[in-house]
Design goal:
1 helix; two-stranded antiparallel ribbon; 152 residues; 72% helix; 5% strand
Amino acid sequence: MAGIIVAVFWAILVSFLAVVLVRLAQTLRATTKLVADVTEQAVPLLADASATVRSAQTQLDKVDAIASDVQEVTSNASALSTTVASTFGGPLVKVAAFGYGVRQALGRRTAPEPEPEPVRGRSSRRTVIVGRTVPSARGRKRERRNARGQKD
């Protein structure tokens, strides 16, 4: 009787191991198929990725060339503006100063000078000449005449 129990137990164990081995074989087949599918899809993807990286490198080389050209143009523009400022800056300032002086001279020539108000109760106007104070002519008003000889 013990032999029959061992034989039945051995048959159950072998059946259980057979089921496990069948399932393991199915899993290995599915894994093999999955690896084959991934390989089929990965090879073209890797080729596309490689082409994309090469294209990106080409574009980066072009951008680098453009950036160096922009840097050169920027330095040239800076040098040009410095040259223009040094070449034309001084003469333009002189012309502007001359124009300002001419406008001031013409403005004084055409517009009468306003009489200054007396300071602290003084009625006479005084002029300072080389450290001396000289009184103006008393009782006499200065009249200005314009270019046509008429009084202002």
